[in-house]
Amino acid sequence: MSDAIVRCLWAGTDPLYIKYHDEEWGKPTHDEKKLFEFLILESAQAGLSWITILRRRNNYRKAFANFNAKKVAAFTEADVKRLLNDEGIIRNKLKIRGAINTARLFLEVQKEFGSFYNYLYSFLPDGKLIVNTGHKLVASSPISDAISKDMKKRGFTFFGTTICYAYMQAIGMVNDHIPECSFKWAKLNS
C-alpha cells in the first residue's frame, strides 16, 4: 500500500496550483467573504487561464478591499481609474465595472435570501452538494446553466455557465476530484 499523494491531473507541478488544489478546490465553504472573493476571481478569469488569476490573487485582495463586498459596492469612478492603473490585476474596464456591480448585486442577493450561500444552495437538489464519482470532466451542468441564467437576469456579468461551473467547483458545491485523488473525500470532511 502506497502513501503517495495522488492529485487530479490539472494540478500539474506548479506549486500555486498544487496548493490551491490541495487546500481549496472542491472544499465546501459557507463563508460569505470567500463566496464573494471567488465571484470576483472567477469573473476576472473569463477568457483567461485560472493560473493567471491565482498568480494575481493577492493583488486582487489589495485592489478590492480584501474582498469586502460592502466596500467594493461603494467604489466610485475614482476607484475605477485607480484599478485601471493597477498593474497587479487584469485591467479590463468592463471586468472592473462588473466586479463593482457584482458587489452591489451580491449584497442584494444576501438581503433577499439571508445569505449568498442560501441563494446558491437553493439550486441544488435538497440543498446538498454534488459529488461526482467518475472521471468524466464537464465544463457546465444543468445547475450551472440555471444559476448563471438567474444571475444574468439579476444583472451579474462575466458569469456564464462555464464560469459558474468553475465557481461551483472552487467553492465546493461540486466535488470533481477524480476518485483516486487523495483529496476527494478529505475535502468533504474538513
Strand content: under 5%
Order of helical and strand elements: HHHHHHHHEHHEH
The CATH class designation is Mainly Alpha
SS-derived structural category? mainly alpha
- In CATH, the topology is named Endonuclease III, domain 1
**Strand runs, count:** 2
Q: In CATH terms, what is the architecture? A: Orthogonal Bundle
Oligomer: single chain
Q: What's the number of structural domains? A: 1
Could you please describe the fold and organization of this structure?
This protein is mostly helical and 190 residues long. The protein has one domain (9-189): Orthogonal Bundle (Endonuclease III, domain 1), CATH 1.10.340. 54% of the residues lie in helices and 2% in strands. The chain is built from 11 helices and 2 strands; from the N terminus they run ααααααααβααβα. It has helices at residues 15-23, 32-45, 50-55, 57-63, 69-73, 77-84, 93-113, 116-121, 142-154, 161-170, 186-189, and strands at residues 130-131, 174-175. A two-stranded parallel ribbon has the order 1-2. α9 packs across α10 (161-170). The radius of gyration is 17 Å and the shape is globular. The two termini are 24 Å apart.
In short:
It is built from eleven helices and two strands, in the order ααααααααβααβα. Helix 2 packs antiparallel against helix 7, helix 2 crosses helix 10 and helix 9 crosses helix 10. It is mainly alpha-helical and 190 residues long.
